[in-house]
Specification:
Distance between the termini: 10 Å
Radius of gyration: 16 Å
Number of helices: 5
Strand order of the largest sheet: 2-3-1-4-5
Number of strands: 5
Helix content: 25-40%
Structural class: alpha+beta
Shape: globular
Largest sheet: 5 strands, mixed
């Protein structure tokens, strides 16, 4: 049986003083999730958050599962690169990063990224965080 990992990917901006609605208005992009510091219940990370996956409002689902990490990152980069100056000018003081969840059915294998994607990520000047989650095999998988 071939193992198939899936990925969810978001570009995130977070910080104590961040105003998610302001991010939405400046970037003219609809977020897939927001959290302001007044409603944050996570005591380990009380930061406000604005997250964008590029597809939430297009397919009306909370997360899109990409077959490869590269495919998802390229999709979001294509939508965000024209906004890079706005992001750097208005949100330089906040933590900015690509957050990627890797849902894997086995512990072997890994991620492969092309040199072209790595260059685009470097030009975007932000962190890439990959969180790995093991999911159990089911008879339907």
């Amino acid at each position: 049986m071939k193992k198939i990992d899936t990925y969810t990917i978001e570009f995130r901006i977070e910080g104590l003083e961040l105003q998610p609605l302001k991010v939405t208005n400046i970037l003219e992009l609809n977020p897939c999730q927001t959290r302001d510091m007044h409603t944050c219940i996570n005591k380990r990370n009380p930061n406000a958050l604005w997250a964008y996956d590029g597809v939430y409002f297009e397919n009306n689902s909370p997360a899109y599962n990409w077959k490869t990490l590269e495919e998802g990152l390229l999709f979001i980069l294509d939508k965000l690169e024209s906004k890079l100056d706005l992001i750097e000018t208005n949100f330089f003081m906040y933590k900015r990063y690509f957050w990627c969840a890797n849902f894997q059915k086995s512990f072997d294998g890994g991620v492969s990224l092309s040199p072209q994607l790595l260059k685009r990520l470097a030009d975007f000047n932000t962190e890439l965080i990959i969180s790995n989650y093991h999911i159990e095999e089911t008879k339907n998988n």
